[in-house]
Amino acid sequence: MSVERSLVLVKPDGVQRQLTGTILARIEAKGYRIVELKLVEATREVLEKHYEEHVGKPFYEPLVEFMLSGPTVAAVLEGDRVIEGFRSLAGTTDPTTAAPGTIRGDFGRDWGEKVQKNLVHGSDSVESAEREIAIWFG
Ligand code: RTP
Ligand code: MG
Predict the structure, then answer these.
(1) 50 has catalytic annotation
(2) Which subcellular locations apply to this protein (predicted)?
């Protein structure tokens, strides 16, 4: 067993489309524990820290604007290899090609050159998870 924690977000498109419950149900059905959970209006300051690695990329500013467009649900999950496991549940970044059965593959609709609505975020490493949990939950 390798018990990890992951920072997961239901992004503004997921909250607005009332998919929060569906997404959390998949997480719980998989056996991950929700150890922190809140609905937040992310600030630019939080988002600039969260998306630090993407500064300067063409999608950075539209991404931040999208994340400011409505409330986000932030959660900390705990479970065996949950970092990789949640990313597998989420599916690949672009919902158009994300596999059916994944959150993005089943529910993701919108992907444009400047629109990155793919419903969820999940930490991609132990280091990212620690950093992101501190940003969102202090
Ligand atoms: P996430 O961080 O949200 O879990 O997603 P990810 O690892 O699959 O994707 P990442 O490369 O970290 O990108 C973060 C978010 O930026 C938007 N994005 N847009 N237009 C584009 O080419 C593009 N690439 C990334 C997405 O919202 C992605 O989730
Ligand atoms: Mg990422």
Answers:
(1) no
(2) Cytoplasm
Q: Which atom of ligand 1 is nearest to the CA of 122?
A: 4
Comparing CA positions, the residue from 25, 29, 23 lying closest to residue 11 is: 23
63 lines ligand 1 (CB under 6 A): yes
Q: What does the domain layout of the chain look like in residue ranges?
A: 3-137
Residue nearest (by alpha carbon) to ligand 1 atom 24: 59
Which amino acid appears at position 104 of this protein? R
According to CATH, the topology of domain 3-137 is: Alpha-Beta Plaits (3.30.70)
Mean pLDDT by runs of 10 across the 138 residues of the chain is 97 97 98 98 98 95 96 98 98 94 94 80 98 97
| Residue 124: closest CA among 95, 94, 81 | 81
- Whether residue 118 has its Cβ less than 6 Å from ligand 1: yes
Q: What is the ipTM of this complex?
A: 0.93
Q: Whose CA is nearest to atom 13 of ligand 1?
A: 93
